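User: Sequence in, structure out. Go.
Assistant: Echoing your sequence, followed by the structure tokens.
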Amino acid sequence: MSEAAAAPLRHQNLPLTSIRGFAALWVVGHHLQFVLAYAGYDAAGWLFRPGYVAVDIFFVLSGFVITAVHRDLTLPGLRDFFLRRIFRVYPLHLFVLALILGLWVWSEARFGNHDPTERLRDLPIVVLLLQPYLLHGLTWNTVSWSIGVELLCYVLFPLVIGAMRRLEFVGCVLILLMMAAIERHVQSDMVWGWPAVARGLAGFGLGMAVQQMTVLVRRPRPRTASLIEAAALLAILLAVLGDHLRLIPVFAAVLIWGLAAECGVIARGLGAGWCVWLGRISFSLYLIHPTLIGLAFVWLPPGRLGLGHAADGMLWTLLMLALLLGLATITWATVEEPARRFGIRLAKRRAGA
């Protein structure tokens, strides 16, 4: 095992940051296509309808990165670990939920609208991100279910990482194959209940196993890394075209392994500034987009643009993407990133004390 491979990840891996942004865009495309198809616009539906699978890619990527950064986690470091995780997730989640609640109050007061997916009795559960376990339906900020599942992965991580980092090559291969098989079995579009929880645990575990494998094998050289990246991307595309969506998280795990080397052609391309920016705002983009898409579709549906059916759908989509990316950048800069940095400082101060 090389020293570089064995060391925890201490720098930001730009290709992995960037791929998170493209996964978020795929989820956005999925929800955009959903509302556009309702209005009779279905361009590129073959590409965007499977976008829900990008959430599974998030889980795989999260398991990989958390294991790389915290593979040496021990009992004294648990407080630091959980402080960082809490400030990474909750401030932005609560901020977006507060905005949604404000819109709900305004809509109720002005129009008397009653959205069956936004019940006040469910709000405390959603605030605590417990909806995957206690509710069985879409409610409030619908995409936040995955954050609740991610929190469970964080809770279980300290219990698993000790055994994972002691795995040798053969044991790691067996765990990797087992996690890939489980991921393929449980992968679906479920967003509540234990099927959704199984999606998250399987993806996160697969990411952990892949990261352990990168420690045990020699880092691929640039040509090999480029081949791994290209083969994985081609496999994902063929899985989309062939409607074999259950295989996509496994192929994404291979792609993450190739990108982690930071030396392949695709990895170098993903190091571009705009790609990294997209990755950095991806969490904000993910949390804010369903509400904004719904509001825009009600207040300014594509048909009001008056340019013709196809042109209306295209222009509306471009305007929505520009609005979402702009607002996600603002929430990242004003809420998400300051909260993340505060969590890091607080963890360091408590560790020093």
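User: And one key feature?
Assistant: Residues 3-347 form one domain.
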